[in-house]
Amino acid sequence: MAMLSGRATARTRYSFTAQFLRGSAIFARRAHEIETRTDASTSEELQADHLACVVGAITQAAAALEAEISEVLTHGPGHHLGSNGINAAARDFLLPLAETVDREPCLQRYDLVLHLLQKPVFDRGANPFQNADLLTRLRNELIHYKSRWGDQMDVTKVFSRLEQLKFDKPAFISRNMNFFPHRCLSPSLASWSVTTGVKFINAFYKNLAIASPLDAHAKYLNVPPPRVL
């Protein structure tokens, strides 16, 4: 509790990890809903809303990964469990290294924290690491989007990896359209983004042997399963 101008003010800290993923799930469910509408194939407004929801699901799921590792580096493992749940020794050990670790790519930060704390690290050649890596790379393609012709887009490694997931296209998109962004940015991809973020963060906390901060939000993170070809 702090005093400001003679008044007591509460010092609080808000974590965005769960909110980002809950927002991602809201966007994913909305994208699925729009796709079921009979007028979606003829409504430019609905199609624009659909695309915005899919992109929102992807970017917020990736943002959750960025947010959570920052929380751990700054406030310590168990930060979400309250002062009695924080591993104070690990926090004090990590904090002087936070700025250095933060220079690394997002997923490498998770592995560095696990390594520094002598916990099992991720298998980078398997899931959930591979899917999380694809999610962050897709987010980067969207945030730093450069408009190119379709055949130039389709040879990009990220899109080749996404095509291997074999998710069905949006119902109102022709199979003759370019893979990215038209066939690629589907409700199925939105659902996959949510579950990818959730599984990676939960796996990280399993390696730490600490309850996940997402446990309390599980019912809000349910999304329709992806449709595969």
Number of domains: 1
Total helix count?
A: 10
First CA to last CA: what distance?
Answer: 56 Å
Average the pLDDT over all residues and give the rounded result: 90
Number of strands: 2
SSE pattern, N- to C-terminal: EEHHHHHHHHHH
Strand content: under 5%
Assign the structural class, choosing from mainly alpha, mainly beta, alpha/beta, alpha+beta, or little secondary structure.
Answer: mainly alpha
Low-confidence stretches: none
Please give the share of residues in helix. Answer: 55-70%
Largest sheet: 2 strands, antiparallel
The largest beta-sheet arranges its strands as 1-2
Q: Roughly how many Å is the radius of gyration?
A: 20 Å
Principal-axes shape call: elongated
Q: What do you see in this structure?
A:
The chain is mostly helical. It has one domain (17-220). It is 56% helix and 3% strand. It has ten helices and two strands; from the N terminus they run ββαααααααααα. The chain has helices spanning 17-36, 44-75, 88-94, 98-101, 106-116, 129-143, 150-154, 157-163, 179-183, 187-208, and strands at residues 2-4, 7-9. Strands 1-2 form a two-stranded antiparallel sheet. The longest helix is centred in the N-terminal third of the chain and has 32 residues, at 44-75. The radius of gyration is 20 Å and the shape is elongated. The relative contact order is 0.16.
